[in-house]
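Sorry to interrupt, but I need a hand with the structure work. Please put the record directly below this note.
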Amino acid sequence: MTVAVLVVVLAVTAGFLVRAVVARRRTERRVEAAAERLERALPDLGPGPDGQPAPVRLERAVGAAAAGLDEARVTARRLAGALEAVPHGVVVCDPTGREVFRNQAAAGFAGSRHGAALVERAVQEQLRAARAGTSEPRVLELYGPPPVVLAISAAPLDQPSGTGAVAVVDDVSERRRLEAVRRDFVANMGHELKTPVGALGLLADTIASEDDPAVTRRLAERMAGEAVRVGRIVDDLLDLSRIEAEEAPRREPVPVHAVVAEAVERARPLAGARRIAIDAAGLPRHHVVRGDRGQLVSAVVNLLENACKYSDEGSTVEVRSRSAGATVEIDVRDSGIGIPARDLERVFERFYRVDPARSRQTGGTGLGLSIVRHV
């Protein structure tokens, strides 16, 4: 009986031992397989010492994976920071269409305002199209106010689990405005030059067939006037081009009274022709500004000539200066026809005239106040 019991106990114990050994070997194989998978997934890990136990290899691989994960998190934070610094709206989604990133510039698109809702809908449409491989850039115009023009595009992002997408929203309103200004400028410049050049050609043809000396002299005077007009347009264009091209104008202390005195001398012929007096007496000699003297003189000359052109003959144009904190104001006053309130915001546009007929009659180019604004 005792021997039988002992045999049973030994058999049970042996069974447990066999099961334990089998389980251990199975666990070791699983650990080894996991270690091999991690080692294959981490090509930069490199081979370890020969004969390392599977748990040691697994621990080494897990440590490397954790380090790689930490590095990936740091890289992700850097990328997110870089995208936050981008002035364009950026939205990223995963292969399921779930949004995973939106920078601050794109945060306002999800608002309840009508314009924001239109932008958000366009962004989501672009993301879906990019994931499907059919995305085409589009332009969205919002009429405001203020009017806004947005360029929206998207691109697919290939990922192991599928295709995600990134959408970019670029505000091109200012670019469109500048393009329109450039087109208008070229068209207006062509028109402004075409009129006097055409007149010169017509007058020249008339003079060629005219025998009366008095008529010829009168036509020649008109030709001279048209030539002067062309010269003024070219001079103003050159002044405007120089001012715009000079990114860092020379800035030096310039006495305001000296600037005004030089400008008065340059405007005196026009003032004399219209019997207009320019009163610039009593300007404080201690008023000094920092700037480019030539540009400052050009600005004051344009103001004085405008005042002379649009004032009644025999009137007076006054020039005064006064300090206003850290700045000096130059005030040119005349008794002319004035500017309607509706035109005040546009008088600094190139070639803009409040009264085109009167401007051409007085020889104005429509560029004077544009030069003043840039100075």
